[in-house]
Amino acid sequence: MKIAIAGAGAFGTGLSISLASNGQVTLWARDSDAALAMAASRENTARLPNHKIPGNVLITSDLEHIFAADTILLAIPAQKLGDWLEENARYLAGKRLIACCKGIDQASLRGPVAQIEAYVPDAIGAMLTGPSFATDIAKNLPTALTLACKNIDEGAYLQACLSTPTLRLYLSHDVIGAELGGALKNVIAIASGVCMGANFGESARAAIITRGLAEMQRIGRALGAEPETLTGLSGFGDLALTCTSDASRNYRFGLAIGAEKDFDPNTTIEGAATAISVTNLAKKHGLDLPICRVVADLSSGKIDPETALVTLLSRPLRKE
Ligand SMILES: NC(=O)C1=CN([C@@H]2O[C@H](COP(=O)(O)OP(=O)(O)OC[C@H]3O[C@@H](n4cnc5c(N)ncnc54)[C@H](O)[C@@H]3O)[C@@H](O)[C@H]2O)C=CC1
Ligand SMILES: O=C(CO)COP(=O)(O)O
């Protein structure tokens, strides 16, 4: 297997460091200056500082190197994935394309694997997702993720090739569940951050995590996901990590909203765009997802944390 990673942000870089323990890897950055600087310093100072990139990672901005691989991990933000796939579709036919991003596209309301299927229909699409900070992966700390692929033989092959001594992949065929878990946990992480930033308390945060999981299961049921996927690594596992750790950018974004502080607009916050996508998906399917809805409004500055709290608490009482 010849492995390449498209997207040299924090996650793409972390994955390249980890997968290099299995052999040669290509890491593609869209910016040629950034690729040259990374190749010279063997470090991604902008997105993943203080982690050495091994010598067997080829760092390049030349797409030809990506197209020479048979297996390409896509570590490009979810809202940019569709354009990238559309632009490069003719070179990606027949390849294994593994989405590593977490989100639902605002324009199409598709998850990352559905985007692959739409733009490169004869590729083998898969999803790599679950609880994993890029820094932990880069440090080769023990990590367990879900590798979801509809084609079980291809999935098993990818599971074997992409696992490392410290990165343990669990195989699933439930691509929809894996897509939804990764996308929605970011939305709920923003809500958790708002809760803590606004000093609503840890009990309230536990309620948000639990009721957030109920929303994930509700939309999962409507879209045909399997319940175990949403309580597994790619659902509950990632939700638990991201809703409780300052290392999460989505959580920190929520903290800033809650505390009414500014936040660096150049940070990748997948949950903000996905909250809007999910709210539109919910409308389409006649679902009530109140936490996702308030996160969409909070992220776009339409409401403040107090209004969000009142909105959630004043809803009619109901069965759990
Ligand atoms: N950082 C982390 O710990 C983890 C991130 N992820 C997911 O990985 C995805 C990427 O996130 P990060 O690498 O952390 O973000 P990042 O902000 O560190 O890097 C994003 C990268 O995408 C590139 N990029 C942006 N627009 C592009 C375009 N139109 N075409 C090609 N490349 C483009 C940027 O140049 C940058 O290198 C996200 O969906 C995120 O949810 C998943 C697990 C862990
Ligand atoms: O997905 C992640 C951990 O599993 C990273 O979360 P953030 O994008 O919130 O930093």
TrEMBL record:
* Alphabetized HAMAP family for the sequence: NAD_Glyc3P_dehydrog
Q: Which GO terms describe its biological process?
A: carbohydrate metabolic process; glycerol-3-phosphate biosynthetic process; glycerol-3-phosphate catabolic process; glycerophospholipid metabolic process; phospholipid biosynthetic process
UniProt-annotated binding residues for NAD(+): G7, A8, G9, A10, F11, G12, A134, R249
What are the GO MF terms of this UniProt record? Answer: glycerol-3-phosphate dehydrogenase (NAD+) activity; glycerol-3-phosphate dehydrogenase (NADP+) activity; NAD binding
Report the superkingdom from the record: Bacteria
Q: Where in the cell is it found?
A: Cytoplasm
Q: Which pathway does it operate in?
A: Membrane lipid metabolism; glycerophospholipid metabolism
* Binding-site residues, NADPH: F11, R30, K102, A134, R249, E270
State the EC number(s).
Answer: 1.1.1.94
Q: Does the keyword Secreted apply?
A: no
Predominant cellular place of this UniProt entry's protein? cytoplasm
Q: Which UniProt keywords apply?
A: Cytoplasm, Lipid biosynthesis, Lipid metabolism, NAD, NADP, Nucleotide-binding, Oxidoreductase, Phospholipid biosynthesis, Phospholipid metabolism
Instruction: State the SUPFAM superfamilies in the record.
Output: 6-phosphogluconate dehydrogenase C-terminal domain-like (SSF48179), NAD(P)-binding Rossmann-fold domains (SSF51735)
Q: What does this protein do?
A: Catalyzes the reduction of the glycolytic intermediate dihydroxyacetone phosphate (DHAP) to sn-glycerol 3-phosphate (G3P), the key precursor for phospholipid synthesis.
Coiled coil ranges (UniProt) are: none
Provide the organism lineage as a comma list: Bacteria, Pseudomonadati, Pseudomonadota, Alphaproteobacteria, Rhodobacterales
GO CC entries? cytosol
Per the UniProt record, the source organism is: Octadecabacter arcticus 238
- Statement: the UniProt record of this protein carries the keyword Zinc: no
Q: What is this protein called?
A: Glycerol-3-phosphate dehydrogenase [NAD(P)+]
